[in-house]
Amino acid sequence: MSHEHVSYLELLARGAGTEAYDRPVLLARAGGAGPEVLAGLEEAKQLALRVRAELEGRRRREAELSALFATAHDLAGLRDLDAVLRAIVQRARSLLGTEVAYLSLNDPTAGDTYMRVTEGSVSARFQQLRLGMGEGLGGLVAQTARPYVTDDYFDDARFQHTRTIDTAVRDEGLVAILGVPLSLGSQVIGVLFAADRRARVFEREQVALLGSFAAHAAVAIDTANLLAETRSALAELERANDIIREHSGVIERASEVHDRLSELVLHGGGVHDVADAVSEVLGGTVEFTEAGAGSARRAGGHAVREGDDWVAAVSAGGETLGALVLHGQPDLDPVDQRTLERAALVTSLLLLARRSAGEAEQRVRGELLDDLIDAPDRDRRLLRERAARLRTDSDAPHVVLAARIDRAAGGAADSDAGRRESADRQRLWSAASHLAATRHGLASARDGGTVLLLPLGPGESAADLARQTAKGLGGTLREPVTVGASAPVRALLDRPDQVAVAYGEARRCLDALGLLHRSGQGAAAEDLGFLGLLLADGRDIDGFVGRTIGQVVDYDRRRGTDLVRTLDAYFASGMSPARTKDALHVHVNTVAQRLERVGRLLGPDWQSPARALEIQLALRLHGLSDVVTGT
Question: pLDDT confidence of 176, banded at 50, 70, 90?
């Protein structure tokens, strides 16, 4: 065997490119080889190229079979339909070597088609595309139940073009598109696509491969639908069993709750202990509220149904102290109704016994909080002793919360409105004082509302505490209660003056929630995004920029990439990759790759309206910061 023939074997062994196979012939010609040698080398080259093509075909078929096997394995252990469909689309994109792959499904209810999964797409408009039945290349595939391919989408007149589809396709920069049907029997339920941002010809083997992936996707959807139907049937059976168990155990529950209520009275239990005990026995959620007794006041001690709730008045000596409200059990058994009524009676006894002591403690708690806000220069040793007597851990981080009842303005006369507002403030202060006592915090009535100083729990943020407080007070009062929170205050008795500063921040947050029409909610400055910058005294601009686009900035700094400038140009170009590439003077594929990286860093919802607004502001602040610092 000649040296040149060995060279071809070496080229085959290391998988060299086709251009390398011309080298032995060129070297022989340059060395003065005769016609017979050159002809033999040319014949050997053609044979080697055929062997190379056969090897490449086998490797490609092995990769395709491996991907199809992996897809079948995913279907066998189907748990998450979205994950399976994403895997199918990703493998189709990889094996066909296209820049984009996507899957659309028909929506029979809406009468149109929508994007379910996309891979490689960077245009928000394209990812959210919905189109009418029969429109576009996908419509042609769905109508004929056959695959269709176009080498140049915009010059193809075989299917119906619409402005909506053409705009989205142009925005994504797609040119060549292959679509195959997703079929269940004779019904087409969607289309699987592979597409490039350049003209190309899809081979017959590639069309068949994409069709195999489409068949797997259709099976995945059908399997998920069957699983959903099975789960629904099992849930119905479980509900029927629950009803049987409930009826058989109703007498046993009545006896159990009687014993537990007696034990609570003997051991000094509280109102919420009674509510928890009845909740556990009746299976719903029982809460005590100082308002909302409604028709229960006129029912002579009987529980009455109000909507889906059951209400039992808590009263003593003709005075209504509140009500026990049972949620989550609209069809209450008569025996369980008597149980709720007995719990209301026990609650009234506990309230009367604790009223005097409770009012005294509430006043003391309010006075301590007032002194921290109005007179922080008081003797710190005395302040610490007063806090210790009230079981307030002054070394733990605390949050100042400003709360008020927000109700729609009515048409009552001024005197009636004034009385109602005064009653609302009293009810809010009473509920807040009870909450502060249970959480070892402080509460006081101020500025037409209530201020609370509550400790943070493990892993709890100021925003979490604000939302919990708004929900708890609102549930107790049966009125929307809005709560604004300060940033955490640490070692509050070492610097008592910071409580007054934190109260001002909480009040500003409370006012901002009103302006944002978020009555009945709780929030801290960190919840309000860039608006929080205006509320917080620190103006933590760097923190806001870091939370919003910090991962992109850090990625550019580490890798020397240009993602921040690409984002700026993308938003300035109306979120169009095609126009962005003109602004940056790069190829549209470069823009697509950069935006795909941004999506991985910031999360899949980074182009939603709310996040896009904050990202643009963070970009502007980051740019201004660079100008100021000279970076």
Answer: very high
Q: Please answer whether residues 136 and 142 qualify as being in contact, where contact means their C-beta atoms are separated by less than 8 angstroms.
A: no
Dihedral angle, C-alpha 496, 501, 503, 509, nearest 10 °: -150
Q: Which tops the pLDDT comparison, 415 or 578?
A: 578
* Half-sphere exposure for 34 (CA within 13 Å, toward CB): 1
Question: By the 8 A CB rule, do 516 and 532 touch?
Answer: no
Query: Rounded distance, CA 174 to CA 99, Å?
Result: 9
Q: Which residues contact 589 (CB under 8 A, 6 or more apart)?
A: 99, 197
Q: Helix, strand, coil shares of the chain as percentages rounded to 5?
A: 60, 15, 25
C-alpha separations of 501 from 372, 399, 535 in Å: 11, 11, 12
Residue 405 near residue 481, CB atoms below 8 Å? yes
Nearest Cα residue to 522 out of 486, 479, 481: 481
Contacts of 329 (CB under 8 A, 6+ apart): 282, 283, 284, 310, 336
Q: Distance (Å, rounded) from C-alpha 295 to C-alpha 314? A: 12
**Residue 117: Cβ within 10 Å count:** 22
User: Which of 601, 558, 556, 562 is closest to 584 using CA atoms?
Assistant: 562
What pLDDT shows up at residue 245?
62
Contacts of 573 (CB under 8 A, 6+ apart): 579, 580, 582, 583
- E strand residue ranges, 108-163: 112-119, 130-132, 148-150
CA distances from 546 to 33, 542, 555, 614, 619 (A): 69, 6, 12, 12, 10
Q: Are strands 481-485 and 522-524 parallel, antiparallel or unpaired?
A: parallel
The four Cα atoms 504, 508, 510, 515 give a dihedral, to 10 degrees, of 160
C-alpha to C-alpha distance for 489 and 495, rounded to whole angstroms: 9
- Reduce the secondary structure of 585-607 to three states and give it as a string: CCCHHHHHHHHHHHHHHHCCCCC
Q: 394 in helix, strand or coil?
A: coil
pLDDT tens-digit map of 547-557: 889 899 999 99
Q: How far apart are CA 588 and CA 194, in angstroms?
A: 17
Going from the C-alpha of 117 to that of each of 91, 127, 217, 575, the distances in angstroms are 13, 8, 11, 20
Structure tokens that stand for 474 in this block? 């609102």
Q: What is the DSSP string of 469-488?
A: HHHHHHHHHTS-EEEEEPPP
- Cβ atoms of 230 and 201 within 8 Å: the answer is no
Condensed to tens digits (0 to 9), the pLDDT of residues 565-598 reads 999 999 999 899 999 999 999 999 999 999 999 9
DSSP letter at 180 equals E
Number of H helices, E strands in the chain: 21, 15
What's the distance, Cα to Cα, between the start and end of the chain in Å?
66
CA distance 577 to 571: 10
Separation between Cα atoms, residue 425 and residue 443, nearest integer Å: 13
CB 483 within 8 A of CB 450: no
Q: What amino acid occupies position 505?
A: E
